[in-house]
Amino acid sequence: MPIQKFYVLILSFFFLFSVVSCRTVPISEQSQEEGITRIRDEFEDKNWSDVVSNVDEYKARYPYSKNLPEAELMQANAYYLSGKYPEAIAAYEDFARRNPINKNVPFVHYRIANSNDLQASEEIDREQVSARKAIIKYSFYIKNYPNAEFIPEATERIKVLTRRLAEHEMFIARFYWRKDLYSAALNRYLEILTKYPQYDDLKLEAKERAAVCYEEMADFLEENPDSDQFAVIKNVKPNDLRQKAKEILSLK
Description:
Helix 3 runs antiparallel to helix 4 (68-81), helix 4 (68-81) packs antiparallel against helix 5 and helix 7 packs antiparallel against helix 8 (151-178). The protein has eleven helices and no strands. With 252 residues, the protein is mostly helical. The chain is elongated and about 85 Å long. Helix content is 73%, strand content 0%.
């Protein structure tokens, strides 16, 4: 055999051997321990997409494995750490439902709250659905796990988010105020006084402007006694509205 062909044959053999040896064995072809070890390694290496896909494969291959809680938690954490918060919330909720007495359940509930928090807009002119959900979840965590690790963080985030909700209400109230939509503005100002009385600066503005709203609607009703434009002043006399204005201003 010519020496050139011999070298080509040898090189081809080593190439084929390297391809075969480097082939990644699917989770479905590995044992339970091999599979979970591989997922742990991928998690340590921050290969989040591999963790997610391989946990799914592991669950399908070993649906009754003792390692499932660990695998499922790694998957939820992989979603969270890669910024896929809706997927993380779903995975954490599923984990808590399937493993109610697992030692990691308090942490899971904190992460559910935090995932909602991280989706919440910091801009007060934006919808605050995620902020409201985060407050509910943080409150659940604090109430049910008072000695848990992240209680200080959860408590602080509730304060921040609650203030943001109050400012969001004020933003909407001011919008209606500028448009002279006194009934709509009044509803928002009353909401602030009812739900967020702890903020003196917002409370003062809400009191003063709510009183003006009552006065403006009283004036409107005097000029248009048969009007049903505002539901809040149906079957109400102008003097009743002016009395409400005084009561609002007298609030401590």
